[in-house]
User: What shape does this take?
Amino acid sequence: MVAAAGDRLDLPVVDLASSDLRSSAESIRKACVECGFFYVVNHGIEEGLLEKVFAESRRFFEQPLEEKMALLRNSSHLGYTPPYTEKLDASSKFRGDLSEKLKIGPIGDEGFQNDANQWPSEERLPCWKETMKLYRAAALATGKRILSLVALSLNQDAEFFDCPLAFLQLLHYPGEINESDDGNYGVSAHSDYGILTLLATDGIPGLQICREKDRHPQLWEDVHHIDGALIINIGDLLERWTNCVFRSTLHRVVAVGKERYSVAFFLDPDPDFVVQCLESCCSGACPPRFPPIKSGDYLEERLSSIYKRKNLLHDT
Assistant: This one.
């Protein structure tokens, strides 16, 4: 069964080539307050590079399962995650989400000493690693530009947000599904955990957001594809930072009967950085809703909880 379409949602489109930074920042603020999602165009990532990333992603996921399992997710949460291993919505009645993933973290030659990444064989996929490294660099530069506008939207200096940690996640969603998975999700409902996510999709629909998570029944709206645009959404840490002025929003990917690929890029602060409410986002009448917490502690807690639920946390 293919999931029914949600209501169509028109999100703001921010042009990163605009010289009017204040106007762009105001558009981002409006989007972050209202729904936590927006598009960016003229983002600086070349179309040819994106095409190569999707092509290499497809080559990886088309490999036999035993080849992918050789890169099984490690204790740093990096590597391959097979279908049904994650269940992002704990209330889901299914054994796990339909998608399979490959996650890449900080790379040693970027100045990080502890490179826990697992790379496919260069013999099998000779261009794979270099393509992903090029995309990481381009997406990181774009992410920093967006974060500077987010900072301006909060009346902070453009360099306020320092998010040196970047994680690239490739996702593959199956086209045909078993009858036992009728109603299951490619990725079940969740909010992202870090500061900011940059998402590129292949044009196949399926992404939906719920702007009012406490409403019953929940209203899910389709996020449509715009050629040449990236989809941006804010994460839980930015919501905590802004005392819920900015909203991290529930989203999911429904099965639409077509194979689907996407590329997510997550930006996070240094693990030892303490995230606490901005002074401009709290007052005597509106005190901080969350206690200060180290970024690394928060992210580890959220990531580990997924696999503890499934009892599938693997160490290498």
In short: The chain has six helices and 15 strands. The two ends are 38 Å apart (CA to CA). Residues 25 and 150 are 6 Å apart (CA to CA). Helices lie at 21-34, 47-61, 65-69, 128-153, 236-241, 295-310.
